[in-house]
Structures are given as structure tokens and as C-alpha cells.
Specification:
Blueprint lengths: L4 H15 L4 H24 L13 H11 L2 H12 L4 H6 L5 H20 L19 E9 L2 E8 L5 E4 L17 E3 L6 E5 L5 E7 L8 H7 L1 H9 L3 E2 L8
Helix pairs in contact: 1-2, 1-7, 2-3, 2-6, 3-4, 4-6
């Protein structure tokens, strides 16, 4: 029986929190958020509705706000307290009619399990090479490398619905640059299975998780845990293609 992707992410985040001091607090917070997201996903599964209304997410807002006020970073906790005082703002989270990184976190925390549930019930063509998600149209969060023949197969994982689709190995997912000399790679010694794939043409980057080097890796979680790689990219003037759930 296949393990729930939510359980796999939660367990991996807790494991990495023990061995990645620089990201431990963030990973523990993510594990709690993922537990709440798992509950939303399972409730949608149990209801079995086809295309449920986004309003089904509203009853989960108080639990999310309470979690963030208790365990979240200071700026998120302040935003949670403000939202808790004004329920009129909750609907805007579901339609993403809001401004600011903090509000983006609450919107994505609620919408990710909804769109992942919807994607799982849909027939999605994942063999097409495109920069945005073939299901929901969002940008990719992380790339994945898998062994295939004498080379390797690269795919992209959506930042919202977690659908994975095929993508060419040497191709910038932002601008389409394909010259190898303009697509530098950076690997840190402490994370040999995760690397930055950058582009000197558009100055963006995406992280890539090599499952041939670590079969236990969970791409969405590894992306969070390797915050040190973000620092290298920032120092070299590369911008992240798509921030993760925590806005990093």
C-alpha cells in the first residue's frame, strides 16, 4: 500500500529537522502546517465531491491562524493575529485577492491541499514540455532528477497542486535558454543530492533534487531544508523562479 504523500512529507520534515540545524525551526513549523493540510485533503477525499466550492476551506482558517500564532515566524504570527480579528478578509485568501508575502502564505497553505486533491482526480498530460503546470498553470517549485538509461530524466513539480511533469534536462524553465554554458549548476557539500540550476540569461534559478543520489529525498521538503543554497543564489544575483510555501 502506497504511503500518503502528506505522511511522507511530514516524516521527512521531522527527520531533516534533526540534522539540519539552520532549517530545523522552519521544518518543524512546516511539519505542523502539513499535518493541517493533510486533514483538509482527507476531508475532501471523504466528501468525494467533484469540484467542491472553495468555501469548504473556510472552516479550516481558525485552526491555521491558531497554529501560526503559536508556532509560526514572527511576521506570519502578526499577520495571523490580524486575520483572526477580521473574518471579512478570509474570503480574499481563497481568491488570492490580497497583497504581501504573509497573506500569500495563508492562501497557499489552504489552497495547496485543495488543488492537489483536484489534480489527483483529473487526467493531466504530463509529457508536454512547458514552463507552467499543465493542470493549474502555476510555476514549478522544484525540479527532480531520476535515472533513465545512461542519462537522467528531469521533471518539474508544481508549487500549488504538486503535479509533476516532464521537462528537458538542459533548458531554463523560465526563459527557455538551452545553451549549457549559460546554465550554471551549484552544489553545496552538505547537500550533495540537491543543487541549484541557474540561468545567466534571465538570472533565475530553481533547485533540483537528484533521487539517484538519495532515494529517501522528498523534493518538496528538501527544497525547504536547503535554505543555505538560497543564500548562495542571492549572493550571485539569481532570483528564485517560485518561492516556496514559506515565501523563501
Amino acid at each position: 500500500m502506497t504511503a500518503s504523500p502528506w505522511n511522507v512529507r511530514i516524516e521527512r520534515a521531522r527527520q531533516l529537522a534533526e540534522v539540519c540545524p539552520a532549517a530545523s525551526e522552519m521544518l518543524r513549523f512546516y511539519a505542523e502546517v502539513a499535518c493541517l493540510q493533510k486533514g483538509i485533503y482527507e476531508q475532501l477525499q471523504s466528501a468525494g465531491e467533484t469540484r467542491p466550492e472553495l468555501s469548504v476551506l473556510l472552516p479550516h482558517v481558525p485552526a491555521l491562524l491558531a497554529l501560526v500564532e503559536r508556532a509560526g515566524p514572527e511576521q506570519l504570527a502578526l499577520a495571523a493575529a490580524e486575520l483572526a480579528r477580521d473574518r471579512s478578509q478570509w474570503q480574499s485568501l481563497l481568491t488570492r485577492e490580497h497583497a504581501g508575502e504573509e497573506r500569500a502564505f495563508f492562501a497557499r497553505a489552504l489552497l495547496q491541499p485543495y488543488f492537489e486533491y483536484e489534480a489527483g482526480r483529473s487526467i493531466v498530460t504530463t509529457s508536454t514540455v512547458q514552463r507552467d503546470c499543465p493542470f493549474c498553470g502555476e510555476l514549478p517549485l522544484v525540479a527532480v532528477l531520476r535515472g533513465e538509461g545512461e542519462g537522467g530524466k528531469r521533471s518539474l513539480v508544481c508549487s500549488l497542486c504538486a503535479i509533476e511533469w516532464n521537462f528537458r534536462r538542459l533548458l531554463c524553465p523560465n526563459c527557455g535558454e538551452e545553451a549549457e554554458r549559460k546554465l550554471p549548476v551549484y552544489v553545496a557539500e552538505e547537500f550533495p543530492h540537491v543543487r541549484i540550476e541557474a540561468c545567466d540569461t534571465c538570472r533565475t534559478y530553481i533547485k533540483s533534487v537528484d533521487l539517484t543520489k538519495n532515494g529517501l529525498a522528498v523534493p518538496i521538503v528538501e527544497e525547504l531544508a536547503t535554505v543555505a543554497l538560497n543564500l548562495w543564489a542571492n549572493e550571485h544575483d539569481y532570483a528564485k523562479l517560485q518561492p516556496n510555501l514559506l515565501g523563501m
